Amino acid sequence: MVKLIIRNLSKIYKDKRGKRSSALKNVSLNLDINGIFTLIGRNGAGKTTFIRIVSTELLPTAGKVYLDGVDVVKNPKEIRERIAVIPQEAELIPWMTARENIYAYLLWRGFSFKEAKKRTNTIIFRFKLEKYADKLPRKLSGGTKRKVLVALVISSNAKIIFLDEPTTGLDPISRKELWSVLNDLKKEHLIILTTHYLEEAEELSDYIIILNKGKLVKSGTINDIRDAIGYPYAIKIFKGFKKNIRLTGKVVKKNDGTFQIFSDEITANNLAKKLINRKVKFSINPTSLEDIFYMLVGDINKGEEHEN
Ligand SMILES: Nc1ncnc2c1ncn2[C@@H]1O[C@H](COP(=O)(O)OP(=O)(O)O)[C@@H](O)[C@H]1O
Ligand SMILES: [Mg+2]
After folding, report:
1. pLDDT in tens, 206-257
2. For burial by CB atoms within 10 Å, which of 24, 81, 123, 152 has the most?
3. Can you name the CATH fold of 2-226?
4. To test the ligand 1 pocket, which listed residue (13, 19, 211, 306) has its Cβ within 8 A of the most ligand atoms?
5. 14-56: per-residue pLDDT in tens?
6. Ranges of each domain in the chain
7. Are 290 and 199 spatial neighbours (Cβ–Cβ below 8 Å)?
8. What pTM, to 2 d.p., does this model score?
9. Which residues contact 29 (CB under 8 A, 6 or more apart)?
């Protein structure tokens, strides 16, 4: 377990003309985390700002951050050896092969030539990258490049790994491949992840933070969040429903003629019984993170307009 304590964290950016934009507003957390810790939110919600502050790249305007017992604002050097970061839109160095990229990164992190070489070989083997190791990045697929970047940060001895949107822009197969890499890594590392793919966050996360316009909207395990919004179950009634039963709960009629009903346990139970008695066909599932996100902040694909 790694302790993460955040108190009233705020960040205001100022541009050259002095225009202020408030990227994080009074975010507070007190958690023992392990596995995969995921920040979700629309573009502009403050995810990257959060990652940059917690990983010591950026100073907050106000507030405190303690990661693994270290005050990261006051003592950034103390935490740096324990963390590794893949920034949003990170790229491999184009004129170096995958192997050279990993090796150079390890030298930069302070390992000796001998140790860096040994670690490079080990990680290439572990990530099954032998076939790609001696190629330049432009010869590699997007998925493989991302895998090399993950291999590179893992090759150091960092126990906390920050990955800012590592799967954005990858095709579905490469994304799934990266999921399995992350699921494997979380046994030994804490992974602090951001994504705007909600099904990915639901699939991978042990803990989820929902940010909107710089504010913390909800946090918890997916089940905590389902319970907190009061609609842990989602019933879907297929096309052709005659509305001969009164629907209780939060009812949404979709354009395709289906009904989606969000409800608590008791309502779901009663409704399911009635539907079965009337031979109405339906499915029942835990409410998806996508539906929860929509209820809390709206469509994830809409960027944010910031009012400051
Ligand atoms: N370096 C910067 N200078 C000025 N404004 C910034 C800077 N970085 C981010 N912002 C603004 O802060 C807000 C949060 O951005 P960011 O943390 O990148 O969000 P996300 O990663 O969730 O998309 C946005 O409104 C963005 O325009
Ligand atoms: Mg970002």
Report:
1. 999 999 999 999 999 999 999 999 999 999 998 877 777 888 888 888 888 8
2. 24
3. Rossmann fold (3.40.50)
4. 13
5. 988 888 999 999 999 999 999 999 999 999 999 999 999 999 9
6. 2-226, 233-286
7. yes
8. 0.91
9. 4, 5, 6, 209, 216, 219
